[in-house]
Amino acid sequence: MSAENARRVLLSEWTKIRSVRSTLWTLVTAIVVTVALGMLISGLIGHNFDDLSPHERMTFDPTFISFAGTSLGQLALIAFGILVVSNEYSTGMIRASLTAVPVRGVLMAAKLAVAAALALVVGMVTSFLAFFLGQSVLGEHSTDIGQPGVLRAVFGGGLYMGLIALFAMGAAWTLRSPMLSFGILIPFFFLISGILANVPATEKVGHYLPDQAGSRVMRVMDDGEQPYGPWAGLLIMTIWVVGALLAGYAVLRKRDA
Amino acid sequence: MTGTTGDNMIEAVGLTKSYGARTAVYNLTFRVQPGKVTGFLGPNGAGKSTTMRMILGLDHPTGGSVTIGGYPYRQLPNAPRQVGALLDANAKHGGRSARAHLLCLAQLSGIPARRVDEVLGVVGLSEVARRRSKAFSLGMGQRLGIAAALLGDPQVLLFDEPVNGLDPEGILWVRNLMRRLAAEGRTVFVSSHLMSEMAQTADHLIVIGRGQLMADLPVRDFIAANSTDFARVRTPDGDEAAREALVKALGDAGGQVHPEADGALKVVGLPLPRISDLAHEADTRLWELSPHQASLEEAYMRMTQGAVDFRSTADQRAGLVQQAPAPGYAPGHTPGYAPGYAPPQQPYVPPQPPVQAQPPVQPQAPVPAQRAAGATMALGVPALPPTPPASPPPVAAPADIPEQPAPSRPEDAR
Amino acid sequence: MIELAGLTKRYGRTTAVQDLTFSVRPGVVTGFLGPNGSGKSTTMRMILGLDHPSAGQVRIDGRRYHQLADPLTHIGALLEAKAVHPGRTAYHHLLCLAQSNDIPLRRIDDVLDLVGLAGVAKKRPKGFSLGMGQRLGIASALLGDPRILMFDEPVNGLDPEGIQWIRNLMKRLAAEGRTVFVSSHLMSEMALTADHLIVIGQGRLLADTSMARFIEENARTFVRVRSPDHERLRAALERAGGRPRQCPDGSLEIEDLPAARVGELAAENDVVLHELSHQQASLEEAFMRLTHESVEYHARAGR
């Protein structure tokens, strides 16, 4: 594939994404929800800091607190990832897309590149906004970007959001149907993963789930619960993402459109 | 079967429907008689569906009324057993099986369950009766809709685009079904965009354009009134002299002669026996002398020309313009029509209630007289001298798409 | 040119398309006929590389679909099912297709104009009628100004004007030397549009012939003559070995003599003719006869 060819397909995918309003709204929602919820929780905790137990005060992680909105905000990015891919199937657009760009890998790579870049930008904006605004309401308990590990956590938060969208895209490519994708991914990330990671019996497995592992990078204070460091956690998440994308690619290659 | 045939007539009187400032249907007065298939034609957005919905009491008329057997639909005693309708094939009931869907309808109107299996057999869905209709193709959905319409064994049937999505066998089946229903004395009212289908199915036509009645007459009369018949003549292959002689003789006798792509001649304005005589006089043998009746499509196009919304700039009726006459072939003098073979000089006049054909009130309303008079023009021959150019000049087929758009018009976006 | 060689598609144990071999040539409109479920859509999807054949292959201008550089400039297709995101405007839909195949952007306005959608280019197809959706699909097919065009049930949802327009469009595209491959269930429409026919039933090729030959081979044709000098004509025809049949309306039907021969006979015998026409059965009749037999055959064979 020539660079010229790549440029065209990328441009085309960019047109596709920017011309559907519902997809763009998910990105706006991701920013607003993550930042607003992060501020709210930061504000509440900052206000009630004195009520915390000594242990909680010892391990208090102001950076991570300002990312409290991520748990909900990531759902919007997952929705973005699902919509970008599975809408092609549910509307039949995939047939037009594949007749225009018949080499499956090219189409998929271009769509991933554009959508992931967009998700990454949104993720970074969200992450930095959530951090700074969160710190501003934490008041005296806040930290700043210059402290050790803080910049890594904020930057990692942006990466996390980009990766979660990519994971959703891989899953959507595997599952095709938007209903199925939403029905599996949203409950999983909203509830099940959290439960698995907090129930002692499944805790060990739960730590290796993509969101649990990936969110380690947003912590500055190590609470010692997870058996890996921030970058190792992100690597585990990346492996999940790669796995999902490979599965999606296999389905796209093998199955009839 | 209940009642006499007169009980089952659909009758619209001054039927009008406005949506705010927009008038969808204006002052429609017509009757749909039992025992016949009545076709309901009109461009998209002409108000066909609105009219059908008003007949079924789904939309309220803003003026006038429409009755079935003398009653407005809502006051019909036991309406589901009197009237059956297929309106929108896409109105599916995904989760339910075909049988459950019909059973539910049957129970609503007190129809015995046995009838459900009967109609499923009639429409050929017995084998898939227990499958969920979500998995149905467009054609199967259509058959299910027809089954629902037939459920109450009604005397009055309305079908909106019944052959949509059906395969050739299904199309043939629907055509025969409608003819059979009419032959049984029922009232059958069918809308369709497929003129060739209509020509084979309908006995009578009601044509509307921009919500107004444009024609209400038998199919045969409609075609005769809105198109030009012609004859196809072929001289022995390779005998150019004979051909030239015949062309000259026909031209001198007042016929208009156009060469066709396959070497035959198209002759307008002379009856077949006269052509035969002329050939004989010119000592030309004929290999073909066949009458051609214009198609319903041609007649319809000519009639509705002015009634199409969003008219585009260029003429898309180029298909009617068979071949531009080659120089020397189209005689420039006034054609003399032989009696009995001339295209009608009079506009059609709807036979029953004549008031219906009053020129519409809208400013851009079609004036049938002009169209009928301009009929010869659209065939690519010089117009009769006094005729104002009512139809757009014929446009030769463009050589290339990008440079020569032949725009069409969008359908109504409802 | 589209070439199919031994194209086969199986879904589990059912065979949707079996060993199809045919070519669709440029310069004519080729009709693609078959009853519902005969494999037409599957075949069209395999031509476009959307479905993978279980065996055999398709070549577009000698190449496999995925080997085409900028495929939309080689082949444009309208598929029966909608292939448009309802939330993306008609213009943007065409824009993303144009960009992916390096098609000049002014071409978008050209095709929108051509199909009559210029006025609603900025509208989302959510509110489009079936006919408008169809026109947008046709615009997408024409976008790359391709030499090969494929239409699956193009008149679906169009009104009489639209039907006539698409018919003329297809004929014009063929007259320009393009390859036009079109499927339809409307036999009367096909009879007006197509020059050549490919008929399949139960996934197998049943016919690949010209329209005229197809009708000739699958339905009755005869010559109808009318003459004031009816008895003399009948005698002349019988002498020439024909077996004219008297019709209730006073005309004669002859199956075993061609029209030209009847004309010559009339001239030799100085008989005036008032009609001499070659009568052909309809495409529908021919199609029914052919596919009906095939269905029966397969039903018996399946037992």
UniProtKB/TrEMBL annotation, chain A:
Residues spanning the membrane: 24-45, 65-85, 106-133, 153-175, 182-201, 231-252
One Pfam family from the record: ABC2_membrane_4
Keyword Transmembrane helix: yes
Keywords: Membrane, Transmembrane, Transmembrane helix
Keyword Membrane found: yes
Alphabetized PANTHER family for the sequence: INTEGRAL MEMBRANE PROTEIN-RELATED, MEMBRANE PROTEIN
Protein name: ABC transporter permease
UniProtKB/TrEMBL annotation, chain C:
Entry's Gene Ontology molecular function annotations: ATP binding; ATP hydrolysis activity
Keyword Amino-acid biosynthesis appears in the UniProt entry: no
Record SUPFAM superfamilies: P-loop containing nucleoside triphosphate hydrolases (SSF52540)
InterPro entries given in the database record: AAA+_ATPase, ABC_transporter-like_ATP-bd, P-loop_NTPase
Domain ABC transporter: 2-227
Keyword set, alphabetical order: ATP-binding, Nucleotide-binding, Transport
Domain of life the protein comes from: Bacteria
Family affiliation: Belongs to the ABC transporter superfamily.
Record-linked PANTHER family: ABC TRANSPORTER, ATP-BINDING PROTEIN (PTHR43335:SF4)
Designated name of the protein: ATP-binding cassette domain-containing protein
Organism of origin: Streptomyces radicis
Species classification: Bacteria, Bacillati, Actinomycetota, Actinomycetes, Kitasatosporales
